[in-house]
Amino acid sequence: MYGIFFRLWALTFLGVTQATTVATNLYIVNKVIDPDLYPRPAVLANGTFPGPTIFGKKGDHFIINVTNSLTDERMLRATSIHWHGIFQNQTNWADGAAMVTQCPIVPNDSFIYDFDINQAGTYWYHSHYSTQYCDGLRGAIVIYDPDDPYIEEYDVDNESTLITLSDWIHTASPTPLLSNDSLTTLINGRGRSLQVEVTLNTLSPLAVINVQPGKRYRFRIASLACDAPFNFTIHGHKMTIIETDGEYTTPLVVDSLWIYAGQRYSVIVHANQMIGNYWIRADPLFPRGYPGFDNDRNSAILRYNGAPEVDPETTDNSMQPLNEDDLNSLESSQPPGKPELCGADIVIPIKPTWHPDINLFDINGTPFTSPSVPVLLQILNGTFDPDQLMPSGSVYKLKANSSVELQLHGITKGGPHPFHLHGHSFWVIKNALSDQYNWVNPARRDTVPTGFDTNLTVVRFFTDNPGPWFLHCHIDWHIPLGLAVVFAEDPEGTSAHLKPPPPSYDEICPAFSKYTGDTALLRITEPEGHGA
Which of 1, 329, 343, 497 is the most exposed place for a label (fewest CB within 10 A)? Predict the structure, then answer.
């Protein structure tokens, strides 16, 4: 599958480094697909799963026209696209979080996302309208760095070295998941399903990643999952981590790593083993997937040039798993604020609770519910007081140029929950399963797991990007179940900070206010198997 901007990628590596304006179209359509041989209707970008990869380079200007051509009434038909990990500085209105920064795009309408990317790394895009991206609307973004500090350490970094991990269900996302048998792990859009194995007595083809002996590859691993975390390995090969969520790290050698929904890693892998075939494994955490490798589920193939086209016979000898405490930023970067717990200008506990009687989560006592008017529009219309901003109790005001410490408490129900912050990356001072605090040079990223009931994760960021930014669990079913808050960052300065949105921005809310096509499907219940 050729990605968007493939020509741009080629130009980048021919030495063209000046900023480029790149314009393209994403057509959001319905289509029946069978990535694991089980056909089901889907919501797709340009008719493919995953959607076309968007390539660019640091400093480029992107104009992406999203046209909503959805018609299938079994699934949500309005849409909104979030560019996960992109800071959207001065373009908060292009962040794509439905009812936080914009109204959804109704069927037969379109919206232009117009923004600069002054970052480099591995990112992705997905629907940010209820649970829609679980139905297929997700794809990768790769932004190359003309000043990549690791450029001499690898030989190949192109579309062939992108590895996407996805979970896939056999029912439309608003429908409760009834059995783990219908959960499939897809690697680069292909996988094997227990349900298909039982009913059809056949095996679907697996993704193959080809390598040349002796070459060094930068594999960009992106979790496009809407729920499951994966334990990722490449049999017989060490992986040197150099990037977490668009941020460079000091080199760290591992042979396995856990990756959670929304997270990304770049790893350097040296193809220095005997010519042959090697298993790539992405084992999901039960009950969030169907773990194990019977009939080579949860797998893809690393194939050396010259190897026969047969399944591997390799075994896992992983002895060096990722310890997230060992991740450090490449450039020395001390978190803002004092090097002590509660040493930031603003300290916010994030304490989730599950309420089985009403089938909702809350954070700090309030379940998030989508407001009737996007938070950004409320701010642009002059509402700055968090007590007046809707949804009531879920909006936290942050002063400009302040250090913010989030104390993310774990919860076993539905956990571990990966929390994602829009508009920023953060310093990970304490990981959920660790007792160590790193005040000197912690890794930075935008998505972090929060563990279970007794665990605490501590992160910090700096308020230099005015606008409302979503913080939420990236298990997609958990947002409509209340597991989110909004940070209204410098609301008084937001209007002056933002570039003007396109004219269509003023048109999408009136259109959505009249739209009733998704009302019944938005009544979500906690899917079975996603709670315990």
Answer: 1
Q: Could you give the 3-state DSSP secondary structure of residue 256?
A: strand
Instruction: Name the residue among 267, 246, 248 with its Cα closest to residue 154.
Output: 267
Nearest-angstrom CA–CA distance, 373 and 508: 11
**Ranges of H-type helices in 6-134:** 6-13
Do 94 and 208 fall within a single domain?
no
Give yes or no for residue 410 having a pLDDT over 90: yes
> Residue 257 sits in a domain of what CATH number?
2.60.40.420
Assess whether pLDDT exceeds 60 at residue 14: no
**Residue 79 within a domain:** yes
Q: How far apart are CA 25 and CA 504, in angstroms?
A: 15
Average pLDDT of the chain is 92
Least confident range from 26-35, 83-92, 278-287, 457-466: namely 278-287
> Do 378 and 389 form a contact (C-beta atoms < 8 A)?
yes
- The H or E element spanning position 67 is strand 61-68
Query: Which domain covers residue 463, as residue numbers?
Result: 346-501
182, amino acid identity: S
E-assigned strands of 100-188?
110-116, 121-127, 138-144, 162-169, 183-187
pLDDT at 11 over 70: no
Quickly state the pLDDT bin for 397 (edges 50, 70, 90).
very high
Residue-level pLDDT at 182:
63
In the chain, how many domains are there? 3
Residues forming a β-bridge with 277: 303
Phi/psi region, residue 292 (left: phi>0; alpha: psi -120 to 50; beta: rest), is left
Which among 119, 126, 129, 111 has a CA at the least distance from the CA of 501?
Answer: 111
35 and 170 inside one domain = no
Closest Cα to residue 64, out of 47, 86, 48, 81? 81
The answer to whether residue 520 is domain-embedded is: no
Which residues touch 80 (CB under 8 Å, ≥6 apart)? Answer: 96, 97, 98, 102, 103, 104, 105, 127, 128, 129
Q: Is residue 297 part of a domain?
A: yes
Q: What is the pLDDT of residues 126-183, one digit of tens each?
A: 999 999 999 999 999 999 999 999 999 999 999 999 999 999 998 888 775 555 556 8
**Quick one: pLDDT at residue 178?**
54
What's the chain's Rg over C-alpha atoms?
22
Domain boundary among 126, 147, 168: 147
pLDDT band (50, 70, 90) for residue 213: very high
Tokens of 345: 């200008």
Per-residue 3-state assignment (H helix, E strand, C coil) for 195-251: HHHHHHCCCCCCCEEEECCCCEEEEEEEECCCCCCEEEEECCCCEEEEEECCEEEEE
Segment 273-301 mean pLDDT: 89
